[in-house]
Design goal:
The chain is 51% helix and 0% strand. By secondary structure, the chain is mostly helical. The chain has one domain. The chain is globular and about 35 Å long. It starts with 5 loop residues before the first helix and ends in an 11-residue tail after the last helix.
């Protein structure tokens, strides 16, 4: 991760790696809104197709 607030997300990612969490586990984790860490959960939802915050992708 690179960026001004990358450190804010590293703890959550490190914990997910240490606990062996997959995208489903991460997406089920509650994150406060609006926060930068919330984007990790949203990315996990996109990865396994359960994201309701984005319009469907065009095929």
């Amino acid at each position: 991760m690179v960026g001004t607030h990358a450190g804010d997300m590293m703890g959550e990612i490190a914990l997910a790696i240490q606990r062996g969490a997959d995208a489903v586990d991460i997406s089920k984790t509650i994150n406060p809104h609006p926060t930068l860490g919330e984007s990790i959960g949203t990315a996990a939802e996109v990865a396994h197709g359960s994201c309701t915050d984005l319009p469907p992708s065009k095929k």
